[in-house]
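Illustration 12: tRNA pseudouridine synthase.
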Amino acid sequence: MVGLMPSNLMESQALQKKDYTHYNHTDACSLSRWTTKECYQFMYARPWQQVNDFYLDMVKGRSSLLDLFGKETYAIHDGAEIVEDCGKSQLASVPAADRTGRWARATFKIVLSYHGGSFNGWQTQPGLNTVQGLVEKSLGKFVDEKKTQQLKEKNLPIEACALVAGRTDKGVTAFKQVCSFYTWRKDVKPQDIEDAINGAAGKIRVVSVSKVSREFHPNFSAKWRRYLYIFPFNDETEGDHTSLCKKNIVDNAVFRHGHGDQCIDEAIRGCAVDVVDNDEAETENKPTRFDVSSVNHLLHQLEGKLLSYRMFARDTKASRNIGPPTECFVFHARAAEVLLPCAQDGTCTKTMCIELVSNRFLRKMVRVLVATAVREAAAGAGEDALLKLMDATCRRATAPPAPPDGLCLVDVGYTEFDKKSCLIP
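Figure caption equivalent — predicted structure in token form:
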């Protein structure tokens, strides 16, 4: 009988034999542009722990975005005024005492702040610690009697159903995430909801709870989303990032997810697997430094334009690659050099902050944009490089997603976007 080969050994051998092809760029920067492997090495070899610590302090209320930018440069748009007015005329036509069915339903808007490194993303997944799972479990005590009975008959846990403005990926922090749920119970108060979630949560905090029109939807009612990406610079020479790659990736994997995370596995493979690269001889001479101003110029070209999901999103179905729904309108895209607040030892970390505001983003789109902008800036590409990439023939033309540690969903707007609210002017 032939012995069976361990699955992990088979996977390891398969990885060693696999050929990784790269997109054939034909512009003048093709020899200076990083491969997928080199992008992983450069992006993951960062002091991400300091960014994680800052985000955790921000979620707990010990720091804020004002500590980064030094002055109050933006106003929080919670959209309460517009969602309260929505459907007011309809509600007025039905006497309060006679409201039944959908008219009697109470909808609550919940603004949350949570630390991405402490959760396995927003969306509920069996056996994993997710924000949605925690929120819905906390709201279970406010479910009406009819739904409670239905859940019991199906042997399901008594949990509410929470809608959200945007499902953040594993490791992504949110400063003012917006979600909602509804109930037919008339005794539920906003303070009850806040106390229930805060009492059951760890690294999550309720910013506000308000009662809104039943027509309010945190996703479809939103007019824009604002993301901030904090990219920390190394104290070491940027050109020596290769030797730091494996250590930083493993350290970050243990900190964020423990062992076995698919995204981190892919990053580690990028360092461990021999990649077939026709330009391997020139790899050592590729630039690893870039100017923040170059990244800013690249991103600035996106403002006021429709950006295709086809090149800059990941893990989407083929049907999402064609037609108007596969585009987003970019309101604001800027980058600036900012000092991360001093740590306990009195040292400050030099970082690059990237602010992106759009009417919508698809999965991993912000992280792909960040990594691609950094790669193009280091290669010395022209200011229209990101726009030209939309005409590429496959997604290998763009860089792999940047680590989730640096990404934060700042807020969601339900009124028209105001340029005066920008973090980076």
